[in-house]
Amino acid sequence: MEVKIGVQHAPREIVLESDLSAEELERIVTAALTGSEPLLSLTDNKGRKVLVPADRLSYIDLGEPSVRKVGFGAL
User: Fold this and answer.
1) Whose CA, among 11, 37, 53, 64, lies 20 to 30 Å from 43?
2) Who contacts 25 (Cβ-Cβ below 8 Å, separation ≥6)?
3) Which positions ≥6 away from 34 have C-beta within 8 Å?
4) Structure pTM?
5) Sign of the CA dihedral 48, 16, 55, 10?
């Protein structure tokens, strides 16, 4: 699942691929936004951990898993 995280006062969004389902990701984000967790902590497919202070979150975009494209031409 592709996750895009908008952070306040940051010019670029954070983009990562996660193996978690949309429901699991939503549960993690909700815990951060309700104040039970001070940080939003997500780990991507490659094991990289992203920590964002919950009070600095602007938006979270949960998208479909990206399909790997093969070849050089656009179809």
Assistant:
1) 11
2) 1, 3, 18, 42, 60, 62
3) none
4) 0.78
5) positive
